[in-house]
Amino acid sequence: MNCAHHRIPVRRLSTLGLLAAAAWFAASATLRAADEMVPLLLKLPAPMFIGTPKDMPANPNLEKPSDKPRPPLLVPKDVRNLASSATLNSSSTNATQASLHKLVDGSKEPSDAGTVLLRKGTQYVQFDLGAAYELFAIVIWHSHDSPKVYHDVIVRVADDAAFTQNVRTLFNNDFDDSSHLGAGTDKEYFESHEGKLVPANGAKARYVRTYSKGSTDSAMNEYTEVEIYGRPPAAP
Amino acid sequence: MNRGLLLALLAALAVALALRVPQLADRPLHNDEAVNTIKFRALWEKGGYRYDPNEHHGPTLFYATLAWLRLTGAPGFVRMGEADFRWVTVLFGVGLILLLPLLADGLGRGGTAAAAGLTAVSPAFVFYSRYFIHEMLLVWCTLLLLAAAWRYHRRPHWGWAVLAGAGLGLMQATKETFVLNLAAMVAGIAANWLWVRWTAPPGAPRPTPLATVRALISPAHLAAAAGVTVLVAVVLFSSFFTNASGPLDSFRTYLPWVNRAAGASPHLHPWNYYLEHLLWFHPKAGHWFSEAFIAGLAVVGAATGFRRRTAENAEPDSGLIRFLAVYTLVLTVLYCGIAYKTPWCLLGFWHGAVLLAGVGAAAWWRAARPVAGRVALALALAAGTAHLAWQAWQLDTVYATDRRNPYIYSQTSESLLELVDLVRGVAATAAEGDHLRLKVMAPDSDYWPLPWYLRQFDQIGWFDGRPADPAAPIVVAATKLDVALDDQKTHFMVGIFELRPQVFLQLYVRRDLWNQYLAKRPKPAE
User: Fold this and answer.
1) Could you report the predicted ipTM of this complex, rounded to two decimals?
2) What is the DSSP letter of A215?
């Protein structure tokens, strides 16, 4: 029997094997390189052209950020608003005692006459309660005449007027620390007639500062009202 | 040209540039400006432009921008700035003054000088010269047509006929509303013809309309002008013969635009909208803004065209003044009558008023006697002009994005620039840099002008609603979509920013990326 046609081509197989191995190594090397270097480029939708958008009127509160009423905060029965009898000052040099009084006059209407305008940049209003109190809630109304969001809203309490002793931060939504009081993790929020309620959880302090750094509407800092709810600390 | 007129025009040019150029990039790009820049990007980077008959007007703005940016050796698109684009409309705004000498023997030298001064300081013309949209180009092309036609009327010549034809072709290729200007021009010519017939002395020849047209322009010149009009329009609408349907689309466009004009639009305003914005704009506490000074002078100027006795070849030419008066009035009525209104549309008829106001100021000057009267008039004109210039400056700087500015409309808020800075800052500290993946989502694609501001990123997806998987290292989402990525504890919601009044965007950043940004970023300025 002539076996020539059935003879196994060893040399040819060896060559093929070497080529396959080389290809595998090359492919492996390529894959490793790809794992390390090449960013995954995705096909993402391109922007759609649109026409001139509608010019929205100045003030109607069309966009309601939340339809849900704020859940009630439970506080002791004997708390009262301490802000109305506090002594106020501000980092904003244009703020007078008379203008700051608007913050505690009980009026929460965002009218021009009832709103205090503090200068640009990070500004605070400081409340000296006259003595240390046990605090449970601080409620802040900036200007809420139209949907807007104030930036770097920070609420701090301390034992001294210079805010060097026992400083505690109750609220801070300055995510990028642009006000240099430490980066916060609280979320920004839309102003509304409800005001922003900051729980104080019984913190004991004499001084309260509320900070802000302009809004989506203006670089200025506007305040309508602030209320601080607390009670004298229990006797030791 | 008379030396006094030359000096007056040079002074007007200097004032016009001084009011238009400073802080050109400061006002955030309006939605429409950003759309124009991104449409231009395709032309710049790929040489492609295709006329869209449904939106965004004609091709002139894009090709003029291409010429300007090539001429000035602009960098790549990503490195271009807002001012690079706004310079185009600044040049056309200032170019209105450069065309005025062609009308000097019609408006009179004093009228031309005064019109140049008022063009330079009119707050509307200053504001929209700094706005990368089509309107200023339309006004310029219209003046080109009027000036060339006037020169032809004074001395018929092929060159002026061809230039007028080019002006008309450019008008069509700039904005669909050019038909309103044409209608007002026809009304102006017809009214002039009627006036001449009415005031002709008994026994004088009374030419028919056809004879009047033949006397105005020779058939050969008319054919040449029409040919150039068609050529210019076809070249531009067909994107230099690469889009065969473009020229036909330039007529199809009237279907959607007529629907909008009839009321199918969010831009419906009462008939007095433009007049209120121009003459007395005082929506709430603060300054009032008014260009009533121009309106008052324009009435005086228009009246000079309707005097019964004027000397032959006198300056100003009463025929041109009558034409301008009727043209301006008809165009004003047309724009006020159409329910669709955006404030920049007022430029068309207001330019007629500015030209007439120049004539009015000069007429008053000629009539003022004795010396004390001229001094008083000079002081009044100087005060009125200075007040216009002051308003123009205020509106371009202090009130550039303020709703008390009569000329802003759906203006992008400065708050958006804070979002853009934050996105760029986070990306700068990420390993992927400009290849970082971003997703931007808003109902009805209402995220403009972000495509301009985020143009450096090549891995950015734009969604007209909440996609199935909204997550990405950086997500910009309309607050209405309530994406709430922070609920998953994968992202921080690092801020809410205003896109325009009443329209808000939330910025989400993946937690590890944000922490890395806080650690690596340059220290914020005190």
Assistant:
1) 0.72
2) B
